[in-house]
């Protein structure tokens, strides 16, 4: 175990602009390209502030090499495990944006099957110098996969806890959708588009659906079904992967002040959980 405590407090400031064209392209992924919006839909800000580096600075997994803003944790496998967000004001299409990011915590944990590093990053996002979103992001780092122990798709039905469904909508995402989302977010992580890398190097049975894409699907579906509700807070946590060959359900239990949302595999296993708090 290495100590990366000196990286806590490391800051980065990024600037961008909310572009109409980018918003329209992401809307097209959800079959809404002709929907004109003034306010940027929730979670579309994840298209902004891409980490732009030269091709020579790309690591073998497709991510930028570590050691700039993020610490040089030696574990090669990394993924976005979850986030907690507060929406203070809407981002208006065309506004100039600034994000102030700070590493808030770094923890080493011994899991049941492997060692893990967790890095927590705080983001404050400003539009025309007004604070509009506060976000806390969790990044998990894992060691190399044992190539003799490939991940497999569970064929055993696992009983879910008793759930209340306000809605349950079946959904699929193909390889084109994964490519388009990777392109829009400038995400070069090979597990989302390079099948030989995903299966032979990282040991997955297929291409991995982006966690932020699943979270955005949850948000989009909730807002489509309850457009009158104003969302104040949103948090999500990834539990199990969704692959490009999976069919899954977008589910929600909506109450007056809160909503529980989740991605559910066909066999009942929960891939992602989320919680929404509505404005009173």
TrEMBL record:
GO MF:
(3R)-hydroxyacyl-[acyl-carrier-protein] dehydratase activity
List the Gene3D superfamilies hit by this protein, alphabetically: Hotdog Thioesterase
Xref: InterPro entries: FAS1-like_DH_region, HotDog_dom_sf, Mitochondrial_HTD2
Q: Where is the FAS1-like dehydratase domain?
A: 69-133
Q: Which domain of life is it from?
A: Bacteria
SUPFAM superfamilies documented for this protein: Thioesterase/thiol ester dehydrase-isomerase
Q: Which Pfam families match?
A: FAS1_DH_region (PF13452)
Q: What is this protein called?
A: FAS1-like dehydratase domain-containing protein
- Species source reads Acinetobacter johnsonii
């Amino acid at each position: 175990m290495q100590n990366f405590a000196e990286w806590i407090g490391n800051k980065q400031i990024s600037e961008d602009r909310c572009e109409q064209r980018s918003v329209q392209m992401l809307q097209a992924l959800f079959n809404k390209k002709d929907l004109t919006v003034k306010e940027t839909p929730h979670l579309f800000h994840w298209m902004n502030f891409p980490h732009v580096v030269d091709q020579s600075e790309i690591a073998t997994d497709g991510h930028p090499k570590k050691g700039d803003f993020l610490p040089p944790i030696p574990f090669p496998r990394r993924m976005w495990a979850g986030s907690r967000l507060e929406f203070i004001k809407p981002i208006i299409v065309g506004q100039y944006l600034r994000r102030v990011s700070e590493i808030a915590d770094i923890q080493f944990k011994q899991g049941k099957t492997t060692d893990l590093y967790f890095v927590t990053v705080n983001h404050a996002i400003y539009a025309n110098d007004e604070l509009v979103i506060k976000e806390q992001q969790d990044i998990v780092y894992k060691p190399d996969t044992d190539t003799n122990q490939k991940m497999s798709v569970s064929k055993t039905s696992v009983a879910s806890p008793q759930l209340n469904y306000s809605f349950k909508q079946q959904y699929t995402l193909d390889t084109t959708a994964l490519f388009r989302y990777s392109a829009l977010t400038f995400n070069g992580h090979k597990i989302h588009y390079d099948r030989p890398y995903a299966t032979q190097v990282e040991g997955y049975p297929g291409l991995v659906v982006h966690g932020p894409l699943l979270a955005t699907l949850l948000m989009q579906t909730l807002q489509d079904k309850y457009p009158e509700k104003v969302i104040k807070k949103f948090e999500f946590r990834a539990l199990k992967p969704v692959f490009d060959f999976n069919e899954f359900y977008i589910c929600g239990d909506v109450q007056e002040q809160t909503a529980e949302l989740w991605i559910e595999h066909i066999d009942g296993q929960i891939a992602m959980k989320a919680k929404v708090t509505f404005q009173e």
